[in-house]
Amino acid sequence: MTPDREQLVAQIAEEVIARLRERVGPPNSFGNGPKAPATDGVFPTVDDAVAAAREAQARIAVLSIDDLGKAIESIRRICADRAEELAKMELAETGLGRLDHKIEKLKLVKNVLGLEAMRSESRSNPTGVCLIEHAPWGVIGMVLPATHSAPTLASNAINILAARNSAIFSPHPAGASVAGTILKLINQEIRRLTGVANAIVTVEKPSIRTAEEIFR
Fold it and tell me: What is the pTM of this model?
């Protein structure tokens, strides 16, 4: 790459970063602009939840790799440290499955890939070098099963955050309480570690109607 081209690429990168910071503030500086309420991710309506998740995603998009890694690692830690507690809660709520299976599924969340799976691509030829970075989608809608709400939510949250997205989860009504519990625990840790509130969200009373709203 010629010096002129290097200078042009650097200038473009600086302009993009400057525009992002004007919109959401610099990484780890959350004093400017409107903030979603710190409800730990549980909202009365789908519209409220999605609005908060959209604001959170803009902040997740500019987190440092270190902070994003801390957020993801906190999810793995919660699942490992509270596996028995969450599994018992899920079994009591749903009446489905076996306790030992539920505990093991939560402990296995530590193996879910996060930033390790994210890859950049590069290509080169005599005319120069092309670097391809994959951009986030934004807010992702996710449906949870009644059988294993907690480990499914945690695993999907790791994947979603690694790609710098946020998510709205629609739990099965039969497993809504345990899903809301682990979602709040995850949000509390992410907010403590990074300052980002409502990285993943849900509604207070999930139902077929709220699931349909998310689908639409």
Answer: 0.79
